[in-house]
Amino acid sequence: MVKLSVVVPFYNVQTYVPETLRSLSANKREDFEFLLVDDCSTDGTPELLRRAERDLPGAVLLRHEKNGGLATARNTGLEAARGEYITYLDGDDWVAPGYFERLLAAIEGLGCDFVRTDHVQFTGRVRTVHRVPVGPRGEVLKPRETILPADKTTSVDYAYAWAGVYHRRLADRGLLHFTDGLRTAEDRPWIWRLHREADSFAAVGLLGLFYRRGVASSLTQIGDVRQLDFIRAFDQVIEETAADPEGERFLLKAVRTYLAIISHHLAAKDRFEPAVARKLRTMSAAAMRRLPQGVLKEALNSMDLDRSTQLRRLRRRQGANGKAAA
Predict the structure, then answer these.
(1) pLDDT at 299
(2) How far is the C-alpha of 120 from the C-alpha of 130, rounded, in Å?
(3) What string of DSSP letters covers 233-259?
(4) Residue 141: DSSP 8-state
(5) pLDDT, tens digit, for every residue of 51-94?
(6) Beta strands in 80-139 (DSSP E)
(7) Interior angle at CA 241, CA 263 and CA 247, nearest 5
(8) Per-residue exposure over 133-150, b if at least 16 CB sit within 10 Å of its own CB, e if not
């Protein structure tokens, strides 16, 4: 029986694939499998993965005939996974030797639905430790009780799917799938659903996963229209949270986070192509009109002056352009 399935999507990351694969080799175990999903790469990535399928014990190569994006690639791996536990790794990141074994021991020892871990962000030559924003460590908690408070960074804001490990029963309940086609912010509806619907989780201070930030081919570095999928992602968060029996309790947090992400993108608009920057403003204003207006007002009033002013100005300006602001 496969104990752990590691889902690893790749797309045009030939520079980093060897390091990622070496780290998987340093984590191999007879009952581990590595699901290498090639999302229709056009560089040297496919050849490197074909070699890995031959040389790396536990490697299973899955190839898309059409590029579908990270969410779809993760789903492909998830659907093929046979393990009792499931985790993720991105194709340009890597893990320390023995990391997956320690991760598995943590969740088996705690007996919960999922475990969240700290990670090391690697930017150029600078390494920075990022912690799960959960106080108690090694203690089983109810996920929905860590969503709030609305004005603080909480567990749902630490949205990295690869920073943890998940019991198969979550996949059987449909809680580990991502929204197909989302090109960015795909982790956001996923992490919110996980916290609303899973029964138990824990945070552990395990370091060993290295997240490579600032990769030129990463979508976060590219200012094209795919970046705007964050709006579709957060629309889904709002819709699903509102439908929750305790939706009223969590909506302020969801709306406030949505506004913070809109503000972040507006502040970085110079990295977008001009047409995309215009679309960002139009779509952001429309998104604010779709939000529950009482909650929107409360969220804006709770934000710092610079961001709330920026967002209110956008609503007014778009309204003056013929789109009636709420």
Answers:
(1) 98
(2) 6
(3) HHHHHHHHHHTSTTHHHHHHHHHHHHH
(4) B
(5) 999 999 999 999 999 999 999 999 999 999 999 999 999 999 99
(6) 85-88, 94-95, 114-117, 119-123, 126-130
(7) 115
(8) ebeeeeeebebbebbeeb
